[in-house]
Amino acid sequence: MPAKADQLVLIAAVAENGVIGADGGMPWHLPADLRHFKATTNGHPVIMGRKTFEAVGALPGRDIIVISRDRTWTTPPTPAAQRRRTFTARSLDNAVTIATADGYAGPVFVAGGAQIYRLALDAGARRQVLSEVPGRPNGDTLYPDFDRTAWSVESREHREGFDVVTWVR
């Protein structure tokens, strides 16, 4: 288990069939979910994989830690106007260490992709904030299966076009 894995919070929008992505993007357009993501993660570190970072870029108001196995890849410089930083990590443990440097004790969000979600679940993350999107769109990226009997629903909020479900273990 990485240091401070209990701080990890997975956040994703997931269709009924588990789809989270299609052709490097999302297979739906839900402005309310994007607002939810921004409001939930703003001011907190966000861990993501390289492909996710290349699809969404640096997110204003959040330190971004990008996990990449490619030792030659590094995050591009972040514009000063964003007042946040980007970092490159080579493992989830390294990313959590970067995110919790300087004594940060708040949530560390994990924003994909599928491999990074799987790493965080296997590492002992104890919270998932999943936007459940109705429908079964085509896609090439799936949210990892998890043993729902080991998790419980802490809350369910009905939103415009989706539900936000918080799972804890």
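Next protein, fold it too.
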Amino acid sequence: MENYVCTVCGYVYSPKNGDVENGIEPGMEFVDVPENWVCPICGVSKEYFEKAGQN
């Protein structure tokens, strides 16, 4: 499972934790996160995220 980091604000999406507050269950890989999901901190789309390494 790879983490992804928002290049705008630094938020790290971890598949281990998901984003439960926004409907993303733990265990969901970033590639499987819906395209309409946005960074919960700054609101940018998935295209602003880069791989940040293994979880």
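About the second fold: The chain is about 0% helix and 25% strand.
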